[in-house]
């Protein structure tokens, strides 16, 4: 390969720059080539509307993909949970590196845990998925909370708590870890309480489908276990015909017997944002050995969820 610098397309946010910088270092080590970050502004970054109203988290991806297709950048880094489930034919997901902690976390005033928040506590989140599950948990356990829709980057969201506008905000553990702010977490939410977004905690490295040399180089960063897990989760999301902003949670766990990973458990949940109704199911089986096997696992669980009324809990189904 040439020694010319590779151009990595990234959003401008602090989190996107941090995770792209980490990938850039890894790609440099693998290829021996310098990597320069190319900052790209997406519609999701400039719009102040709530994500569910402007097409979900896919709005963060389009401008990066346009830059890839136009040859302005050689590859791009996305938060995997932002990627629409339909993959463009001219682009390929060259690598899914080892996943960070997929859990959601609480940053609350007075170092409070979720279950210790006072009655009527105002909890900020921009995610219908988080709202649905937090409200469902509160209903089931006699907690009195109010979920408040918010937008903004990590700094903005945490400031709502520090300024006293909100009692707590919900964020992704992986994002806080990548920008060095994991110490601000006051409570890690168990996946038994809140299932994360499909692909949460994982990154997606995307490039042109016809660049075989770059695909091979980026493939060095791929983690097969992470890829099979997020493939199953995203397949579930796609089979529910739901967009990235739908109230759908999913997590594929790899189950080990000693040192040997021998099974995968896929869990999925759909709920109304007020938490009044949810459908939550899981399935466990051998770890899929192929992409098609992981896709099938997600579709099968989605079919069971739809049979139990999941479609009616998602509002308008994204087509």
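^ structure tokens above, recovered residues below v
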């Amino acid at each position: 390969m040439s020694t010319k610098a590779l151009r990595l397309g990234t959003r401008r946010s602090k989190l996107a720059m941090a995770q792209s910088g980490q990938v850039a270092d890894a790609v440099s080590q693998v290829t021996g080539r310098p990597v320069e970050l190319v900052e790209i502004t997406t519609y999701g970054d400039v719009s102040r509307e709530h994500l569910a109203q402007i097409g979900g988290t896919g709005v963060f991806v389009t401008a990066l993909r346009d830059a890839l297709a136009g040859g302005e950048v050689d590859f791009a880094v996305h938060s995997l949970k932002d990627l629409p489930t339909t993959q463009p034919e001219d682009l390929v997901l060259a690598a899914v590196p080892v996943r960070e902690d997929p859990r959601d976390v609480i940053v609350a005033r007075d170092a409070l845990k979720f279950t210790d928040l006072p009655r009527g506590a105002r909890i900020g989140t921009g995610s219908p998925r988080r709202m649905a599950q937090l409200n469902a948990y509160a209903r089931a356990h006699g907690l009195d909370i109010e979920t408040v829709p918010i937008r903004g980057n990590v700094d903005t969201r945490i400031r709502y708590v520090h300024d006293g506008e909100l009692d707590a905000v919900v964020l992704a553990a992986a994002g806080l870890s990548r920008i060095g702010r994991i110490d601000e977490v006051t409570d890690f939410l168990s996946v038994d309480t809140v299932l994360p977004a499909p692909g949460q905690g994982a990154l997606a490295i995307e490039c042109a489908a016809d660049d075989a040399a770059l695909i091979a180089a980026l493939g060095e960063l791929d983690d097969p276990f992470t890829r099979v897990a997020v493939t199953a989760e995203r397949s579930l999301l796609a089979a529910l015909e739901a967009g990235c902003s739908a109230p759908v949670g999913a997590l594929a766990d790899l189950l080990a017997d000693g040192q040997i990973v021998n099974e995968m458990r896929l869990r999925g949940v759909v709920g109304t944002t007020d938490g009044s109704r949810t459908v939550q199911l899981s399935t466990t089986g051998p770890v899929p050995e192929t992409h098609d096997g992981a896709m099938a696992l997600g579709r099968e669980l989605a079919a069971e969820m739809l049979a139990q009324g999941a479609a009616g809990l998602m509002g308008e189904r994204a087509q």
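Residues 50-57 have pLDDT under 50 and may be disordered.
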